[in-house]
Every structure is written in structure tokens, then in C-alpha cells.
Amino acid sequence: MACQHTRLALPAGEALRMDLDGDQRNGMEVQALIGANLRQLREGRGLSCERLARLADLDESTLQALERGATTPSIGMLWKLARELDVPCTAFIEARAPEATFEAQPNGSGFSAVG
To answer: 2 in helix, strand or coil?
Structure first.
């Protein structure tokens, strides 16, 4: 018996992701989740954006864009940040407490964590 595949219709340019619970997330939601988790981890360790960027050998503006969910980090960036924050790389994509909600930026540049 042949395998059957289901194709999903997505807006042009959107990638479909599966999180660890099997839920589907698009690329923008993943960026927002990574950004919110990154900010929460950084602030929880009492680090400024400037300090973490320096420790991870990243531009501060890149780190700020990651926290806003405006850009997608490379695996190398996540590795450096995880090392400096002393967390596994998966910490950036794990669902966190429900207090983190996301709003779309008015200029369409991504999502930001609120609340």
C-alpha cells in the first residue's frame, strides 16, 4: 500500500513548523517564541542586551532584533547564546508560562512579547 501525503496550503513564503507537542507553528510564531524566551532567559540572569551580545560575540542590534522576533537566528547564534546563558539550545523553542503573549508590530516587522 502506498503512503499518502497531505499537502497543506500556506501563505507564500511561510514555513510550517511542528513544536515538541506536535502543534503546528508558522515561521513568525517560532521567531516570536524564540525572542520571548531569549529575553526572559537574559533578564532572568540579570544581563543587559549589550552584555549578552558581547559575551556571545553578536552585534547588540542583532540580539535586539532576535528578541523582537524580527529575525530568525542561525543555529550558530542559538548555540552561542545557549552557551552564555547556560541552557540547552531547546530552551529557546520551548513553550513558556502563559504570561508571554505576542502582538504583531504595526509596521509588519515581526512580533513582540507583551505582558
So the answer is: coil
Q: Residue 63: inside a domain, yes or no?
A: yes
* Opening angle at CA 74, ends 70 and 55, nearest 5: 90
CB neighbours of residue 34 within 10 Å: 22
Name the residue range of residue 33's domain.
25-114
Residues 6+ apart with CB under 8 A from 3: none
Per-residue pLDDT tens over the stretch 30-73: 899 999 999 999 999 999 999 999 999 999 999 999 999 999 99
CATH number of the domain where residue 68 is located:
1.10.260.40
H or E segment at 32? helix 27-44
Q: Cell numbers for 109, please give them.
A: 516587522
